[in-house]
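Exercise 3.2. Students should predict the tertiary structure of the chain below and write it as structure tokens, then compare their answer with the key that follows.

Predict this chain's 3D structure.
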Amino acid sequence: MTKTLRASAVGLAGVLIAFVLLYALFSDRLPPRTPRKVANRLTGLHVPYDAEVVTFRDEWNFRGSGNVEVVLRVTGDEFSQLVSAAQKSGYASNLSVSATDTVAASQVPRANGVYRLVRDTHDGGYTLAVLNGDTKELLARFVVP
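Answer key:
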């Protein structure tokens, strides 16, 4: 009987370790839905844990259209690290926004920083990520019309 209990305990410990590892690896995709997790997913960047939440709106209707917007403020050093990672990921300078791109021109501040705009050609939605160097804020917005 002791061998059976020991084997069960070892099996249970293995299952618990597997769950802990899975949660550690995929925690940004699991509940709860926090502003930092949303910003990580929308920007593709690793937002610092101590980032100050300025705005968090998550509004959807029954048809599936809506938007989520997160604005986070970080320190100067953290902002520099985010900009460096963003540039490596293909973000463009805020000063290079084309006036013919109405979404970017109306929503990307003409400030020191970088941005990325990804459009969904299927439904007209978009994902916008902006790092504003003047305010040291990160804006992440996802819109489904």
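Discussion points: Strands lie at 52-60, 66-73, 92-93, 113-119, 126-132, 137-144. Residues 1-30 form one domain.
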